[in-house]
Design brief:
- It is built from 7 helices and no strands.
- The protein is an all-alpha fold and about 240 residues long.
- Helix 2 (about 30-85) packs across helix 3 (about 100-120), helix 2 (about 30-85) crosses helix 4 and helix 2 packs across helix 6 (about 190-220).
- It starts with a helix and ends with a helix.
- The model has no long low-confidence stretch (mean pLDDT about 80).
Length: about 240
Amino acid sequence: MLEAAFWGFVGGIALVIGAVAGLTIPTPPRVIGWIMAFGAGVLISALAFELTAEAFDRGGVDAVAIGLAAGAISFFVGDWIIDHRGGNHRKRSGGQQGSDGMPIVLGALMDGIPESVAIGVSLVGGGVVAAPVVAAVFLSNIPESLSAATGLRRAGHSTRYIIGLWAAVAVASTLSAAIGYLFLGGASGDTIAMIQAFAAGAILTMLADTMMPEAFEHGGSAVGLLTVLGFAVAFLLSSPG
């Protein structure tokens, strides 16, 4: 459980690193878009080959189909509720966030928890941590919080508030990874497979709904190439040989 918590912390601390960078390093919106595109590509590779493919090997078509659908629908519904409560601009870098930070907190938690649970699940049954998933979460979290921190500052939020927000989400990510391992330690292969596919469905829906549109808005047509680059790098690093 402690190992799962550690790797969840590694993925979550990237949110704090990104927020600090957004507050201290002047980063042009175009560069933020490019970084987000690369991170999206890395995350797509991880959810395809480390989550969905492994879920298929463990539980077959049924587990994958049910998990993907449940994850996608759950994220869609949760995101719709948060959007209509003022959290629809939570990842924007232009200062569109409002003064009410709760929707932003809830949105960040909803984005991060499936990723952390996926990290914890990879250790179930004495397995080793899915390093590509950890790397993908880390690389995608930095531009996410960098962009959001920049926007929160422009919306008038204090540095203490912004850092505290992302530190809280990092703690939640750490706990989610540990809880994912603790409660699924004795679960069946089908259950673990559905959880992995659930995380993949939620993450992919998040990418298509928020992260990739934001990347394209700021990064322009180059984001397509950078997304493929991120995908290729993650795939090649995780492939045997």
